[in-house]
Specification:
alpha/beta; Aminopeptidase; OB fold (Dihydrolipoamide Acetyltransferase, E2P); 2 domains; globular; binds zinc ion
Length: 361
């Protein structure tokens, strides 16, 4: 047997033999697990676990809260993930709101919900995994989920979670996010429209904007898509805050997916939002330093050369006007007005019919 064949055989055996592994210990009254296989959990029950991550610099493990609702009726495996980026908080609340609507009587198959994945990031309000000790460094877990690397602690963390918690427990996935720090964002989806099921998942969210794109290697979304498992990145407004209306709409968007794909017995909510579908966007960057006044809001329709931002010098003289590079919709606006040259001020999204991959039919 060749080395590759042997490795394939070994990894297939590992997958087949995988089962939920309990440490035997408890944390805050919940069982601690080191591997999750939702297929062997008791049917007709809502399970709450702590998944044991890597150890922190004091030698204690990070514990990730995970709910698995295992329905009385059989069905597939849906995964709702959140908090890969630790300063994105609307998603955490949305996982609680989704869970409130689920119980073993109305769920078919299993719905797994990860209530915040990047614990060091959540504790420190950082987007990336925050290294311990006196390190200022962080690492973006959403670019390395399926890398298989285990050299540094962030790699050990993402690889462990990918292999033992996420990748085997899903046949459809919604990964919840928000915009990055310092910019306003609508309800927004990244979705790879080359796959018709993914297209439908995006439509079911009732988002303001869907950006059709080929994905980002190492993200939760794309790592699943590359395994053949339909997945979307669902962006819930702005970071580091809670926005009730966005969370409510996102909750409906997740529930509509669960209902449509036959994981949940309930009635779909009709979204009243008219979704804008785009596949390319332009970022407007500051060229000077100074106070920037936004002349547009998120979701404003703009034409090429409309003025989006005005920048002042320290005396209140206008030093720059920033015009829209294209005709489209304002997708993001920087919310902190002082800006240095190079700062991103916002983005305008459009539909480009020359894109051969991401096509709206
Ligand atoms: Zn994010």
């Amino acid at each position: 047997m060749s080395k590759t064949l042997l490795l394939t055989f070994l990894s297939l055996s590992a997958l087949t033999l995988a089962k939920t592994e309990y440490t035997g210990g408890k944390y805050l009254g919940r069982d601690i697990i080191t591997n999750l296989d939702v297929t062997d959990l008791e049917v007709g029950k809502t399970h709450e676990f702590f998944f044991q991550g890597t150890e922190n610099s004091l030698g204690s493990p990070w514990y990730i809260p995970v709910t698995v609702v295992k329905g009385e009726k059989s069905g597939g495996k849906f995964l709702v993930n959140s908090g890969v980026h630790g300063n994105e908080l609307n998603p955490i609340l949305a996982t609680y709101k989704v869970k409130e609507k689920l119980n073993p009587k109305n769920v078919k198959g299993t719905v797994t919900i990860v209530h915040g994945m990047n614990i060091p990031g959540l504790l420190n309000n950082t987007r990336g995994y925050k290294f311990g000790g006196n390190s200022e460094n962080t690492s973006d877990l959403n670019r390395q989920m399926d890398s298989g690397k285990v050299t540094t602690v962030d790699q050990k963390y993402s690889t462990l979670l990918w292999q033992n918690l996420l990748s085997k427990n899903a046949d459809k996935v919604i990964d919840l996010h928000t915009s990055g720090k310092g910019s306003q964002f609508p309800l927004f989806v990244y979705a790879d429209f080359r796959n018709t099921e993914i297209k439908k998942m995006a439509e079911l969210t009732g988002s303001d904007i869907v950006k059709m794109d080929n994905g980002e290697n190492g993200s939760v979304e794309t790592s699943f898509v590359q395994l053949g498992i339909p997945s979307i990145t669902f962006e819930l407004g702005s970071s580091e805050t809670q926005e009730a209306e966005i969370v409510a709409r996102a909750t409906d968007g997740v529930l509509n997916n669960l209902i449509h794909w036959n994981y949940l017995d309930a009635k779909e909510t009709n979204s009243k939002v008219e979704t804008f579908y785009g596949n390319t966007w332009s970022r407007i960057r500051a060229e000077k330093g100074g106070f920037v006044e936004a002349k547009v809001k998120v979701m404003d329709k703009v034409k090429k050369d409309d003025v989006l931002f005005v920048q002042y010098d320290a005396f209140g003289n206008v030093v720059m006007e920033y015009k829209s590079p294209n005709t489209g919709v304002v997708a993001s606006v920087k919310d902190y007005p002082y800006s240095e040259p190079g700062d991103s001020l916002g983005r305008v999204i459009e539909y480009n019919s020359n894109d051969k991959d991401q096509v709206l039919k």
